[in-house]
UniProtKB/TrEMBL annotation:
The keyword Ligase applies. Allows the formation of correctly charged Asn-tRNA(Asn) or Gln-tRNA(Gln) through the transamidation of misacylated Asp-tRNA(Asn) or Glu-tRNA(Gln) in organisms which lack either or both of asparaginyl-tRNA or glutaminyl-tRNA synthetases. The reaction takes place in the presence of glutamine and ATP through an activated phospho-Asp-tRNA(Asn) or phospho-Glu-tRNA(Gln). Belongs to the GatC family. This is Aspartyl/glutamyl-tRNA(Asn/Gln) amidotransferase subunit C. It comes from Oceanobacillus indicireducens. Residues 78-99 are annotated as: Disordered. It holds the Pfam family GatC. InterPro entries: Asp/Glu-ADT_sf_sub_c, GatC. Heterotrimer of A, B and C subunits.
Amino acid sequence: MADDISKERVMHVADLARLHITDEEAEKLAEELRSIIKHAEQLKELDTTNVEPTTHVIQLENVMRKDEPRTDWITQEEALKNAPDHKDGQFRVPSILSE
């Protein structure tokens, strides 16, 4: 599979991506890509029969608090106490939409 990567193929992909690369750059990229693919192909030789598939190498867990009902909430009057302007139990703010 690594042998499939030629300078011409790199030039074609660069053209599709609208990238301008020189012949020297294309040859260097082709060599680097072949090297990467050869290295990845070595991983096929590993015995992974007893390895459990993972999506993350580090176990992730939720760090949020439990969502529990509370009874010690402030009242509507306490919430509006320091509001510069309020009406009918709601905060009043300047309009930001013009007609």
